[in-house]
Amino acid sequence: MAGLNKVSVDDINVKGKKVLVRVDFNVPLKDGVITNDNRIQAALPTIKKLVADGGKVVLCSHLGKPKNGPEDKFSLAPAAKRLAELVDTKVTFAKDDTVVGENAKKAVAEMKDGEIVVLENTRFRGADETKNGDNLAKELADLVDDQVFVMDAFGSAHRAHASTAGVTKFVKETAVGYLMQKEIKFLGNAVEVPERPFVAILGGAKVADKLNVISNLLEKCDTLIIGGGMAYTFLKAKGYEVGKSLVDMEKVDYCKEMMEKAEKLGKKLLLPVDTAITAAFPDPIDAEIAVEYVDSDKIPADKMGLDIGPKTQELFAEAAKTAKTVVWNGPMGVFENPVLAKGTIAVAKALAETDATTIIGGGDSAAAVMQLGFADKMSHISTGGGASLEYLEGKVLPGVDVIADK
Ligand code: 3PG
Ligand code: MG
């Protein structure tokens, strides 16, 4: 089994110690209300373990992409409040524009064993955080007397920031949490030692975002399925007329190369055989629209393809059903629109119905699966968007790399 050969929270003793835990509480908010608390729920096993062991648990995270320093709309206060509802111990939110200023120090100084302090958004420190500056890293370590750092923010592990990586230089002990272990177990097994057939399904708008994922997964999987906006660049590469569909002309040659690579490796590469077409992109995105379905080589010059068609739904669902392992990242069409969500729903349904190990690679496909109510039918829904993609590309995640080996 592919595993994570890193010191974990099971290997350390935190009783009476201050423990800095990097979580990914970058949750979606609407008018200050959390619309999906999945990432907070996913961090609970580690938090509860450290609380039960009598650690003084100091949590840090980023939220959103604040560009101009502290701003209320990016505060972690709502996440701290939600966490307080989910645990049985005291949770103090250390409101502090500098993250590790007087207020944070006071809150940490007053903690008892088994209590929790949540720090303010680490990105309120701007480049100190995102350029991995030693000053913030040192201040974070200082706050926990340079004792223990636990990395459980899988969703942020592809970022080499002060709170995800730099801080490890200044503490005595480092460990990964249970969420990190779980994510790497599922994604790692799928990529390194999959039960075969292994089918990978990729979607999403832009082929440019997934270049290395396509190439890496082609080597690992038995069948690679391409849907979503990026499929049209592949269809173009096959020499089809794709009308006004989204095409990345600069990547047409790349798609040709990938098709050749699949052939050379003896891998199946499935593209949409039919497509939903409209005259224009829906505006607003969920507007009522009329679609037609045509074969992929019959897209009229004045139309655009925005979802896979019914024959493709069946083709992809069949491929998924014969698999023992499926990894899926990226929607099959413009799933924000009910008429153009059919392809994404069909794939989600096929995955929900199979006995295969099904792994949803975060981001939009995870959101789609949750919205459709299929979440508990999947083996694993990753909490990482960018992080799971980089992992599937075969990259080393800096937030994993910095943790001590076993
Ligand atoms: C995510 O939502 O993918 C993670 O929290 C990382 O966020 P970032 O892309 O803003 O670094
Ligand atoms: Mg931090």
Primary descriptors:
406 residues; alpha/beta; six-stranded parallel β-sheet; 14 helices; 34% helix; binds 3-phosphoglyceric acid; binds magnesium ion
Helix content range of the residues, please?
25-40%
Taking the alpha carbons of the first and last residues, their distance comes to 16 Å
Q: Overall pLDDT, averaged?
A: 96
Low-confidence stretches: none
Major sheet details: 6 strands, parallel
The number of distinct β-strands equals 17
Question: Which ions, cofactors or small ligands are bound in this entry?
Answer: 3-phosphoglyceric acid, magnesium ion
Strand order of the largest sheet: 5-6-4-1-7-8
Shape: elongated
Whole-number radius of gyration? 23 Å
Number of helices: 14
Work out the strand percent: 15-25%
Could you say which structural class the secondary elements and strand pairing correspond to? alpha/beta
What would you say this structure looks like, in words?
Helix content is 34%, strand content 17%. Strands 5-6-4-1-7-8 form a 6-stranded parallel sheet, with helices on both faces. The longest helix has 15 residues. The protein is elongated and about 70 Å long. It starts with 17 loop residues before the first strand and ends in a 5-residue tail after the last helix. The site of magnesium ion (MG) has 4 residues, from loops.
